[in-house]
Amino acid sequence: MRRKGVGYSLCFMWGVLMMMFVIAGCASSEPSWTNYVGAAVEKSFPVPKEANQTDNALNNSKMDYIHYSLKGLSESGGVPEAYEKVIEEWGWTEKKEESTGSTRVYEKGKKIVQLTIHDDSFTVLVPKQEDKAVIQGLESSP
Asked: What is the pLDDT along the chain (142 residues), one digit of tens a residue?
């Protein structure tokens, strides 16, 4: 009788262990690309809600940037299509002539954002807009 109880216990534990393997195997390390929040450096630019902020430089005189970790990204793969679509839906347009390699440049009104994809991470960089004084009438000066 006692052996029967041990057998049932071992069978139950084996079943639980197998379920854990199945659940772990089904869990995806790829981002879902469904939920977004505004970037810490530019609230109107979307970042996946699953991304974790790792580094930032705010209030730099030339730029603000934020670095996020996000498993499943690949520098060679560039910006995933689902993410590109959401960026466009949020009103951003890619400036293809300024985009190079794994860095994409986006514009919305007078705002510029650079998005650089790395392996398992990405950086959102916002260059500071320089105030350029307009000098009029120099052509007609004697």
From this structure: 556 666 666 556 655 555 555 444 444 456 778 899 999 999 999 999 999 999 777 666 688 899 999 999 999 999 999 999 999 999 999 999 999 999 999 999 999 999 999 999 999 999 987 644 444 444 444 4
Contact status, residue 86 vs residue 62, Cβ threshold 8 Å: no
pTM metric for this prediction: 0.69
- The count of structural domains within the chain is 2
Same domain, 2 and 68: no
Neighbouring CB atoms inside 10 A of 38's CB total 12
Phi-psi region of 26 (alpha: psi -120 to 50; beta: other; left: phi over 0): alpha
Q: What is the DSSP letter of 100?
A: B
CA–CA distance, 51 with 117 (Å, rounded to integer):
13
Residue 44 shares a structural domain with residue 65: yes
**Residues 135 and 70: beta-carbon distance below 8 Å:** no
Same-domain status, 96 and 48: yes
